[in-house]
Amino acid sequence: MANDPATALEGKRFAVLVLLLQALIILLFGLFVEYSPGEARPLSNLSLPAPNTLMNSLERTYPMFMDVHGMMFIGFGFLMAFLAKYGYSSVGLNFLLGAFVLQWATLVLGFYHKDGDYDSRIQLTIGNLLTADFAAAAVMITFGAVLGKVSALQLLAIAFFEIIIFGANELVGVTYLKAQDIGGSMFVHTFGAYFGIALARVLANKTRQARHSVASKEGAIYHSDLFAMIGTIILWLYWPSFNASPGDGDQRHRAVINTYYSLSACAFTTFAISSLFSKDGRFDMVHIQNATLAGGVAVGTSADLIIEPWGAALVGCVAAVVSVGGYTYLQPYLQVNWHIHDTCGVHNLHGLPGIIGGLAGVIATASVALSKYGNSLYQVYPAMAPESDTDPVLVNLRQLGYTYPTGDGRTRSTQALFQLAALAVTVAVAIVGGALTGLIVRLPFFQPLPDTADGLFEDSLHWDVNPDEMEMTKISRSSQQDLANGENGRPAEDTASNV
After folding, report:
1. Contact assessment for residue 195 and residue 430, using Cβ atoms and an 8 Å cutoff
2. 499 near 76, Cβ under 8 Å?
């Protein structure tokens, strides 16, 4: 495989396109991007007082930003490393995607949020970096749905188009619908999952026999599952930072607390439900690697809301049951009847829990006791602020030092409907966008993998690997289960996976 002239030619095409893309990004950065004055760049007006370094967003946000950054490259990368013969690609291609998306998302999202002022430049702060990481999370979720079934060039093309669509959907949801989603249950997790599901369906193997012949390669061996658990623990530990980092003050404080207890309840419940759904009462490593994280996804939208710790724990429990049920029953059904092959089960970890999160946000918004938020209500729900500058409530708050702008005067029920609309729009945009992207990247130019057993779930297509080491990875998770359970072992094609 390594000396195949066709493979060498494809590698050169990939290298040339990557270098051209990087050159284009550098050019666009030079033309449209600069440091933010007063934060990343000194103030040029000498008559202005020195900026307070304690108020600089870097000091407030950098620790949480680094938590999120680690989640993207260590957490997601290792969580997908469960495949016996695809470990290099799981971690390495995740790294490749992240390195590209961080730059591309900075440009795309920066253009979307220029508010019509296209003569000005994108002014970078730590907030732009954090937003780019959130966009990378959506792409990495999508990657999980097609893990092992697309080439490196296809992945870059998918990321290129997905970021454009992701940014457009976020613009509609945040700027026009004014929905609140601090932890990205809707705009990150739901979007990334359903984009990936639609993409996987369009890219579905036309040759069903090839899929069955590689079923054993989808499984894990003992040490690859341990590597995946490293990703699980990293994500589980740092998820409070993911949900809380976009907020500030008491909003951020609540997000940490709510995510902390939602994750704890979710993990605790997952062990019980995994054992309950198992025929022999044992834990399934697929569930423990994945469903334990569903609480972080499901509490994302309402993380900064006053849902009380018991409410956060309840959300985590519901997410655990739904996620384990998805891996056990729904994923095999979708694969057999709808031909949706979701390698990592992103629908169960990100799609369904993301919808739960969006609906939890609707319920929390509709039932919110406005008095509980005190003077921070319009920080959490800017669209609920009065429409007039002369409104007595707004005037009083400004006299107290608050700088809230006017809003739309929404009631809590109206805001709840807009939250629901944002969820529906996100699912629709993700499915359509994923399907269209799939039609594009199926073209021969993007070097789709061969539709044979040798073309899927193999590191050797992208990496120099030692053949002797690859021989040690023959026993898959499904094979181990068949040996242990005899005829009652799950079919290999039904073994669910990660992310």
Report:
1. yes
2. yes
| pLDDT, position 209 | 43
330 Cβ contact list (under 8 Å, min separation 6): 347, 348, 352
Phi, psi (deg, nearest 5) at residue 47: -85, -10
Terminal alpha carbon distance of the chain? 29
Q: How far apart are CA 286 and CA 498, in angstroms?
A: 7
| For residues 213-242, average pLDDT | 86
pLDDT score recorded for residue 461: 81
pLDDT at 50: 53
| Mean pLDDT of all residues in 137-164 | 96
Nearest to 162 by CA among 372, 403, 377, 431: 431
pLDDT at 51: 52
Give me the pLDDT at residue 483, please.
Answer: 34
Average pLDDT for 395-424: 90
What would you report as the CA-atom Rg of the chain, rounded to the nearest whole angstrom? Answer: 23
DSSP string, 216-235: GGGS--HHHHHHHHHHHHHH
Left if phi > 0, otherwise alpha if psi is -120 to 50, otherwise beta: which for 339? left
Residue 356 makes CB contacts below 8 A (sequence gap 6+) with 185, 297, 298, 315, 318, 319, 322
* CA gap 289, 267 in Å, rounded: 10
pLDDT tier for residue 45 given thresholds of 50, 70 and 90: low
pLDDT at 376 over 50: yes
Q: How far apart are CA 98 and CA 198, in angstroms?
A: 21
Is the pLDDT assigned to residue 391 strictly greater than 90? no
**Can you tell me whether residue 205 is helix, strand or coil?**
coil
> What pLDDT is stored for residue 405 in this prediction?
86
Distance CA 367, CA 308 (A): 13
Task: Give the position of tokens 């699980």.
Answer: 232
Distance separating alpha carbons of residues 246 and 221, to the nearest angstrom: 38
- Kindly list the distances between the CA atom of residue 494 and the CA atoms of 144, 174, 383, in Å, as whole numbers in the listed order: 16, 38, 46
Contact of 429 with 166, CB cutoff 8 Å = no
